[in-house]
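Section 5: illustrative case.
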């Protein structure tokens, strides 16, 4: 085996890994989990707003 063959095999391995990653990321089975992860930054907003309203409401009363 010469260096060209090794480089070709390395390129083929990276290509297979890339295609596998694409299939994993865009498969329909993963959509629900990705949607839940995408909404995680917004998960605490209603609770913090209610706490602020209660805190500000109790100060004014």
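Designed sequence:
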């Amino acid at each position: 085996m010469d260096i060209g063959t090794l480089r070709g095999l390395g390129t083929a391995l990276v290509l297979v890994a890339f295609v596998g990653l694409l299939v994993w990321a865009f498969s329909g089975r993963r959509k629900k989990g990705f949607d839940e992860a995408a909404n995680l930054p917004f998960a605490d907003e209603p609770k913090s707003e209610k706490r602020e309203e209660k805190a500000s409401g109790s100060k004014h009363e």
